[in-house]
Amino acid sequence: RQLLRRALDGRQAALGPGDPKTLVYVSNLASLAHDRGDLATALALRQRVYGGRASALGANHLKTLTAAHDLARCCLAQNDLAGALEHVDTALKGREAQLGKDHKDTLYTAGNLASLLSDQGDHATALPLERRVLAGREALRGAEHPHTLLAVNNLARTLQELDQLDEAEALYHRALAGEEARHGPTHPATVAAVWN
Fold this sequence. Notes:
Layout: H1 2-15, H2 20-35, H3 39-57, H4 62-77, H5 81-99, H6 104-119, H7 123-141, H8 146-161, H9 165-183, H10 188-195
């Protein structure tokens, strides 16, 4: 931590506190603070990175959008669901504009937004996002890829919450079969799929 702080101080002195290269160190310190459980410090640092990148690079620059996504995760860790939704929605809209709706990073952000919506009980809004993520991951990675199987499971959970039980059950079976094929019947990922 002290080494990162010294490096940050040096960057700030040489380049200024808002320089994108300085903000890389600020982001690293935010990750470290988060990992140590110092969520207040992590949040303040993430806000600094997001604001700094927006000012230096523009609101729709990919590094700014990554900072928005990181800030959303930090808000979520502090149970600030409204803040998390706001920032992940910003990241999703920007990534859709910059990368397209089917890019892997856009799909990752769409999946996170769907999960946040589901966690708040807004399953109807999450459902089309879950379907989009699954279709995109199948196209990009194939039907048996771990990220695709996660999308299968997430969609099944959302469908279950909406009482669309037949489709949910079929998807749970698909996720289980995929995990069994990858890991065997006793692997923790397979056992977790069985519990679904």
